[in-house]
Specification:
Rossmann fold; six-stranded mixed sheet; binds 2-keto-D-gluconic acid
Length: about 325
């Protein structure tokens, strides 16, 4: 008798090629209208699925995972960050969790570089002026921004994405500074001509642009707290393509309102998808809808990683991108 295919529930629409392959390989339930699952729908999914394919929009907290049936063996996350999944509960229940690292590194770094350029050079502001029909023509003192070349970039979290941003930023003449749990291998540090700061506080007080590339964990929640944000100098810019929760967003907004910071470029928010309305009124802020890794190529690559993770798991092997069980 043919072995029954595992039931795979995919919570959001994925690229066609990925969904088609998913249907060929597994007994697959797709989300054709791409609505974000409600809590009730998530609970129903974990109660039934052998494999769940969630995204960042699915809050798989303790309460939801507590209602998982014993058949749920794998959460194959479509995405790198897993902060929306309660890993402790998943571990207790013996659920394997995988993610999709590497394939979104370059796209996210590209977007970060665009954001690093965008606020000091007033890109969105200029574009809004043209669209408003109020541009009256060139003048030598109009729309002056700040030079990027020669500025110090402080990278918080020097993993794959942080390093990819550093490589780009060097091409733009920025000096690379970083704070990371672990210091980089001397060869990489040398290649990037990067200065390591064990103390985040000290780095913040000395850099011109700060960009966040660490994951959101209990240890990094509000890493950029009100106190730490105050260490930044008035001409500094803050860029975030990682997770909103790493920055105390209310404190950031207050400082921007009071002119204690030069500007911010945010692709992620503390309470996504809601955005603090005060940010919408500010000219020195660029706001993007969590699109750091949003390329067609990247989404297909992410989907392929999910397929490989599920297939190896159901074939009885260890999937390549395991977050759980931990290897250490
Ligand atoms: C993804 C991301 O678009 O992978 C991540 O951690 O933040 C994004 O780039 C999203 O998470 C997909 O679930």
């Amino acid at each position: 008798m043919a072995k029954q295919k595992p039931l795979v529930v995919v919570t959001r629409r994925l690229p066609d090629a990925i969904e088609t392959r998913m249907m060929e390989l597994f007994d697959c339930r797709l989300n054709m209208d791409d609505h974000a699952f409600t809590r009730e729908e998530l609970i129903a999914a974990v109660a039934e699925a052998d494999v769940l394919v969630p995204t960042v929009t699915d809050r798989l907290d303790k309460g939801v995972l507590a209602q998982a049936g014993p058949q749920l063996r794998l959460i194959a996350n479509f995405g790198n960050g897993v902060d929306h999944i309660d890993l402790n509960t998943a571990q207790q229940r013996g659920i394997t969790v995988t993610n999709t690292p590497d394939v979104l590194t370059e796209d996210t770094a590209d977007m970060t570089m665009a954001m690093i350029l965008s606020v000091p050079r007033r890109v969105s502001e200029g574009e809004r002026l043209i669209r408003s029909g109020k541009w009256e023509g060139w003048s030598p003192t109009h729309m002056l921004g700040h030079r990027i070349w020669g500025k110090r970039l402080g990278i918080i979290g020097m993993g794959r994405i942080g390093q990819a941003v550093a490589r780009r930023a060097r091409g733009f003449g920025m000096a690379i500074h970083y704070h990371n749990r672990q210091r980089l291998h001397p060869e990489i540090e040398q290649e990037l001509e990067a200065t390591y700061w064990e103390s985040l506080d000290q780095m913040l007080a000395r850099t011109d642009v700060i960009t966040v590339h660490c994951p959101h964990t209990p240890a990094t929640y509000h890493l950029l707290s009100a106190r730490r944000l105050k260490l930044l100098r008035e001409h500094a810019y803050v860029v975030n393509t990682a997770r909103g929760e790493v920055i105390d967003e209310s404190a950031l907004v207050r400082m921007l309102q009071q002119g204690e910071l030069a500007g911010a470029a945010l692709d992620v928010f503390e309470h996504e998808p809601s955005v603090n309305p005060k940010l919408l009124e500010m000219d020195n802020v660029v706001l993007l809808p969590h699109m750091g890794s949003a390329t067609i190529e990247g989404r297909v690559d992410m989907g392929e990683k999910v397929l490989v993770n599920i297939k190896t798991f159901v074939d009885g092997h260890k999937p390549p991108d395991r977050v759980l069980p931990n290897l250490v």
